[in-house]
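Teaching assistant here, posting this on the class forum so everyone can see the example we discussed in section. The complex has two components, and the goal was to see what a joint structure prediction looks like when all of them are supplied at once.
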Amino acid sequence: MSITKRVNGVGEFIRTIVDPVILGFRHLFRPRQTIRYPFEYYEPADGYRGRIINDLEKCINCMLCARICPDKCISQKIVEGKKWPEIDFGRCCFCGFCVWVCPPDSLQMTKDHSFPTYNKEDLFYEWDELGEYPDPSSWRVGKEIKQKKIQHEMVFE
Amino acid sequence: MWDPLSAIIEGLNRLLASFGVAVPGLDRLFYLVVFPGLLAIEGVLYFLILFERKVIARVNLRYGPLHVGRVGGVMQILADMLKFIQKEIIVPSRADAFLFRALPVLMVIVATVPIFVIPFGPNVFVTHYEASGLLVLAIFYLYPLLFMLVGWSANNKYTLFGGLRIAYQFLAYEIPLFLSVASVFALARSFDLIDIIEAQNSVWYLFLLPLGAIIFVISLLAELERKPFDIPEGEQEIVLGPLTEYTGINFLLMMMADRTKILITSAYFAAIFLGGYTLPFPTPLPPYLIMFAKQVIIAFFIVFLNAIFPRIRIDHVIRVGWKYLMPLSLINLVLAFFVGGLLT
């Protein structure tokens, strides 16, 4: 099957060569479809399953979240006789079961999708760390990411 | 006429004379090393590669390199080069180690050598040779042979397939390319690039031989292994073709040779079809700047085409070369004799 049999006549054959060139020239002046990710924040769509936070005032310490977790990444910590969930995000698969099962809706998923660390241990969020976003100034990863973190917090509020 | 090049050479001569040194043929040396020669080529090469990455990104509606350097990622290519230089040179254990290491250097040399004879002005050339038009083609035809040797020397199936693909493609497009250039030789009645350029003083050969120019450009893209005809380097099929086993500075040298060849052939195309260093109307610009501008514009356009076209299948490539371009180029040669007869 030669290329001349697929197109009708010489005119269309020439158009198959000239049209892409014109389209390419047009694309040079079209707006870009991508963003400069670490420097520009792009808010994920609603229902995005990002980092999990726990509203410590709503939590009834039932630990159903630890029971349903398929990755067993939620562990319990007993503070003053109450059980609080702790999440190892290095193991979390962001399935959202814990949020779904939570009776008082105290566990919530946020749109935060990037919390890189240098150590695996830093991905383990203790019970009080789950309650709030960490202070951006304590963020040790880098200037750009820190900047992004501030932007993210503003968006989230 | 405004003429910065000869002013620079004059100043250099005077500077050397003040030290009591007289360099015979300083202008030729200057042409070889600085302006139409090596330094200018390398300088344009840098921006050609940057332009290639930026323009492909732009056509894909992306940003491209942006982070390194203050404006538009201008230092990105330098960073890449530094990265290539500090990488280890890996020679496969079954490869022909001497050829494998020597060929990248040789290819850069072969790709750069034609600048010796391409004239950038009535007096701006390194050497004058009566058959310079033929000589450029002869050196240019060495390049695919070396590329085949590269494919063989690495002793890898992908490099070997790439080399064989180059052989097929090269055989199919060598003849149309040469016949289209031969039509120019027939029209100008000379092999000398300076004669050919002077003969286009009033009207460019692009308008006298449009068919020849089209054949030349298509065959040129095939010989350069640029995008519609990049089957020897088909990334999705044979990893990188003959370049598969190269790492570090050897890979950098092969890339440099590839881009240098684009620049040299752009200058050649400008000389034989676009009037070289002349313009059809009087200008205050010096001839070498005109030639340089034409060279750069053509090279950038070839790179721009790389962003647009998909790859053609290998049997289509061979068929277009043998079945369509070859008869058309013979017709074009006959037409050139007719046009030459009409002009004289």
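For the discussion questions: Strands of chain A lie at 52-54, 74-79, 82-88, 107-109, 124-125. The longest strand of chain A covers residues 82-88. Think about how each of these relates to the inputs above.
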